[in-house]
Amino acid sequence: MPLGWDTLIGLLGRRPPGDERRSSAADGPEIALQAALAHLPVAVWSTDDTLRITSFRAGALPPVHGSAAALVGHGLQEMLGMGFVTAADAYQRAAEGEPVDFELLWRGRLFKAHIEPWPAADARPGALTVVFDITERRHAEEQLRHAALHDPVTGLPNRTLFLDRVRQSIARSRRNPEHLFGLLVLDLDRFKGVNDSLGPLAGDALLAAVARRLTPCMRPQDTLAHMGSQFSVLVEDLEEPSDLVRVAERFQAALARPVSARGEEVFASVTIGIAQGSSAYTAPEALLRDAHTAMHRAKARFPGAFQVFDEGMHARAVGRLRLETEMRRGVERGEFRLHYQPIVSLRTKKLTAFEGLLRWQHPQRGLLAPDDFLPLAEETGLIVPLGQWVLEEGCRQIRAWREGGISTLPTMSLNLSGRQLSECDLVADVRRALDAEGLAGRALDLEVTENVIMEDADSTRGCLAGLRDLDLGVSIDDFGTGHSSLSHLDRLPVDTLKIDRSFLQGQDGHPHKAEIVRTIVTLGHDLGLEVIAEGIETPAHLAALTEMGCDQGQGYLFSPPVDAEAARAMLEG
Ligand code: C2E
Ligand code: CA
Ligand code: CA
Q: What domains, with CATH codes, occur in the chain?
């Protein structure tokens, strides 16, 4: 029941001090007050100037339980026990004539108390006290506050509380430059896998188990928090910055043994990013961001290890973010182009195909090659829409040549990224790109690098077979750089091997490289595959490959990749 002080004082029938009717028991309002009091977690008492209780009424209050009358005549100190210390101070202030509000601990419960100056019966100065039991309410408030600042799965501080502690630590280092502190972000390496394979309940159990394992590694002044699949640690009072590394090692050692999540033993390795705090940080989020940047860097290079943040990392992270934004805009604004490099039959020296290679006409930086943007496109997933555009543009170009009167059209070879291959509707997308330009599958050849194919040979086989059902060719690109297993190679639905250009480069000083090329050509032919050599730069390369019986070649000796206009001139010439 919401009941404010004003209502209660109203119920008490507040009257001017010295009012004669005050003690009249037959009074109407007095009876109403009695009835109301009986249901409320309230007590009301009056005291004289020696803090002796002159009258006492209590409602539904556990601490008084029937002893109300017995309290009259006793001292306040006797009644309140330990709570008297705070109360005495409040009565002192009230004696100066002003009402006072305060909180009172009485017989193990918490009360909100209000004192009004109120003359005693003999007109001596006194006070009237009203107390409200707020134990449950405070308890509920505390639970709410705890819930707002803690994570329900692990019971650890959440992001809000963590950032608040970091903010305090930054402020502390501003006051005291000797105060050294830092942040660790711990990312669970295979959390997604556990969540996907064992279910989200096991995922939660894993997080809780890791929290229990990490907690004993903490010192009391440090804060371990949980956010998503990550834990963050604020480490205070460092003796030297390198202590942060020792803390990281301690955490990793703690997780060297498996933890158990709903009966499953799971190795919960973590990758850790470390950032040293300083008063130069204006916002706690910035320090957390830097620890994250370091963690992502560790993840990309050495999962399961740790990495300390440095300034260059921040610059690179900002650069990547800018590049990603520009790339997204570039896709929308049509800044990407295909350039075409001829593939030539080594027997007839005739042009048999063009490999379409992606370029980005950057508004400020000029024409960019794939090395400048493709790795980030792969990482961010932008390669999927970009790759789709490549398919459409390649098909569009063939049709344009055909409509322009080119009679013998070359095959169009296009590169597929691993990301595209793992998208289940790739086959349908290719089909659509062909249909849109009225082309048969034969018009295309799709190149997939050896590494991508071998990473998950069983699952790519299905996708490649689907592509072959469209009657288009499939090539293994950069052959010789990955780890092909011969047993897989034998069963892959592919038509062509493209020998990586690294086998031709610098070959003059490495005669054994020539032997490797010869072996690959033979292997390809034994498997019934067409063999293309990439990176033919010199007449010597060409002579050697022709002598080995390699079928086709591609390289600067014939032509670098050129734009569509120049490619058309080649077709006409
Ligand atoms: P790649 O598929 O192996 O393409 C051949 C690369 O070798 C091209 O580099 C080409 O310019 C270069 N090259 C050709 N002849 C020679 C030569 O004689 N000597 C030397 N040193 N290099 C030669 P580019 O265009 O920079 O492409 C690099 C890589 O980017 C490609 O390697 C391919 O993996 C990837 N890429 C290009 N376009 C696409 C695309 O549309 N989608 C995907 N997923 N990847 C692409
Ligand atoms: Ca290629
Ligand atoms: Ca290649």
A: 5-139 (3.30.450.20), 150-309 (3.30.70.270), 333-572 (3.20.20.450)
